[in-house]
Specification:
4-stranded mixed sheet, alpha+beta, binds zinc ion, elongated, about 20% helix, two-stranded antiparallel ribbon
């Protein structure tokens, strides 16, 4: 489907939430569920009326957010940490990485996003069962729980983005590179 045959749907708060075929956007407009924000410069000729294809519409009702939480797994920890040891900062290959409990389990540390970091085996050995302070080592950055991935950003990487949408999208690195 050509990009200009799709309509970007915004939430009440003007966040991009969905992409629909233009026909669906017309239906939503007629049902009073959305308001028109932007049109494409293109007419559609029905039997007796001429309408422009909606480029961007905004939901008038509340939208329930569907976001995918990032799974807690070894590979996703490495991904969050850019495959780098969080103590020496060296980027490693997958099989050279291990993970470290920042606060050791023996001291009550939990196996969670905020207490697990990627680590090379040298730093892991050096740190042993100690906290970074006790081992005289410095964490490069505090481990965080990654934000849920917005579904729309993932979908947008696979299609070209019409100009009419640009003011309404979040520009991520991923999207820019597309
Ligand atoms: Zn290291």
């Amino acid at each position: 489907m050509e990009p200009t045959h799709r309509t970007l749907v915004l939430s009440q708060g003007f966040e991009p939430v969905r992409i629909v075929p233009w026909q669906r956007a017309i239906t939503l407009l007629f049902l009073g569920k959305v308001e028109l924000v932007e049109e494409y410069d293109r007419d559609i000729k029905a039997t007796s009326i001429v309408i422009k294809i909606p480029a961007v519409v905004r939901l008038l009702g509340a939208f329930r957010r569907h976001k995918k939480p990032v799974k807690f797994s070894r590979i996703n920890i490495y991904g969050r940490d850019n495959y780098s040891c969080q103590y020496c900062g060296v980027k490693k290959r997958l099989f050279e990485l291990t993970y470290d409990h920042v606060l050791p389990r023996t001291q009550g540390g939990k196996t969670t996003w905020t207490n697990i970091v990627s680590c090379c085996s040298d730093c892991n050995r050096k740190k042993g069962g100690r906290t970074p302070e006790q081992a005289g080592m410095k964490l490069l950055k505090a481990p965080i729980q990654p934000a849920a991935t917005p579904v729309l950003v993932l979908a947008l990487n696979r299609e070209s983005v019409p100009d009419a949408w640009r003011d309404y999208l979040y520009w991520t690195g991923e999207l820019d590179a597309d």
